[in-house]
């Protein structure tokens, strides 16, 4: 499957995200909604990375219908909209959590509690450790990590997810890892990577730099990331409740 930024944006003033289902609920904003588009773009990148919206072996059951599907941390609902369009005989519920939520042990434990026997849990999470970094990008990443630590947001959860799953008696655990490039050095998904990472870097720079210097700073960071071919890893964990 291929993807490009044109899949997410018709023009700067017309929001056209991953599917018409989102448009039917949110309408078309009068101005370009970058936060919503970033969320939609990230959703599509993750979907392409893992060859679909789910990795559990439940396609036949979804087609048959009757399953109850829960999306925790649903955000703007992109995943739910697509799943409910593709498998219309199932029931879907989406709930969101606060950005500062860091009690992952209790969150996974509660997810297991409400999951029926034989059901599957999938967790997709970013690894904060960035690879192949130059000095400028390393300094920015450190500022972001320090800010997250200050807000008591756990950044090492990827290293513990499998352990927490096992402690809650989840079985048949499978872990997938994909490299997520930073900058504009990778066009495997068309403009998707450059568009997403440039916007993400800009948002990070705005928090720590004078707004007047953002464009120059962004250019410097992108140049460095391209030179070193900087990337971070995205992990998906799939497990079953027996």
TrEMBL record:
SUPFAM superfamilies: S-adenosyl-L-methionine-dependent methyltransferases
Domain of life: Eukaryota
Stated name of the protein: Methyltransferase domain-containing protein
């Amino acid at each position: 499957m291929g993807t490009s930024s044109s899949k997410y944006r018709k023009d700067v003033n017309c929001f056209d995200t991953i599917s018409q289902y989102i448009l039917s609920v949110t309408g078309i904003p009068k101005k370009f909604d970058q936060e919503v588009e970033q969320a939609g773009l990230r959703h599509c990148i993750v979907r392409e990375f893992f060859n679909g919206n789910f990795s559990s072996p439940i396609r036949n059951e979804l087609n048959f219908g009757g399953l109850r599907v829960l999306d925790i941390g649903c955000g703007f609902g992109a995943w739910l909209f697509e799943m409910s369009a593709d498998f219309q005989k199932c029931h879907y519920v989406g709930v969101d959590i606060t950005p500062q939520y860091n009690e992952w042990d209790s969150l996974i434990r509660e997810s297991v509690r409400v999951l029926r026997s034989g059901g599957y849990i999938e967790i997709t999470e970013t690894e904060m450790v960035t690879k192949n970094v130059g000095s400028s990008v390393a300094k920015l990443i450190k500022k972001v990590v320090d800010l997250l630590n200050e807000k008591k947001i756990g950044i090492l959860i990827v290293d513990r997810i499998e352990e927490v799953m096992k402690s809650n008696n989840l079985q048949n655990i499978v872990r997938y890892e994909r490299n997520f490039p930073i900058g504009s050095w990778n066009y495997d998904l068309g403009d998707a990577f450059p568009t997403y990472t440039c916007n993400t870097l800009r948002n990070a720079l705005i928090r720590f730099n004078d707004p007047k210097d953002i464009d120059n700073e962004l250019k410097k960071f992108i140049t460095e990331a391209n030179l070193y071919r900087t990337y971070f890893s995205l992990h998906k964990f799939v497990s079953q409740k027996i």
